[in-house]
Amino acid sequence: MARAGLTAERLTVAGAELADEAGFDGITVSALARRFGVKDASLYSHVKNLRELRQRVALYAAGEFIDSIAAAVAGRAGKDALVAFADAYRAYALAHPGRYAATQHRVDPELLAGSTVMARTADTTYGMLRAYGLAEPDLTDAVRLLRSTFHGYITLEAEGGFGHPRDVQKSWERGVEALHVLLEHWPANGEKHDD
Fold it and tell me: What residues does the HTH tetR-type domain cover (predicted)?
């Protein structure tokens, strides 16, 4: 019988909190059960296994993440939108390291099926880039460039990887400005197509 008060949603939120405290890999059924003062087996009435629990946390974190970015970007375009997007991305990742790590994990299609997270993420990201006039495949290439640049910078920053005395915030701002210039002058697509 399911313990009163426990739901998959409550376990997911508690798992997200645990991720920020102990890291994404620190999410375990035992740690979560201790949080609720129950035996491990009690959680299996609400989630199938640890994999499902972690994927639920990943989906929950992805929703929080894109909602914070969408709120920051709302009503902005061009460079202003890019700066707002980048700053919201970085702020979330640094404030919620475990949840941010969760967003880097793939979620099974059946769990995604009932969620709007992927559509909201695409709408917000592609919407922000619309002002730069990019079309596919350049749009996807630009999204991948931004994601990898932001992720790499934030990962290095969080791990203390920048040893130079130059202010990290100033470098971030210049980097985002450089990305804006690049997006405005995106190179022509050199793909060759068979006729």
Answer: 5-65
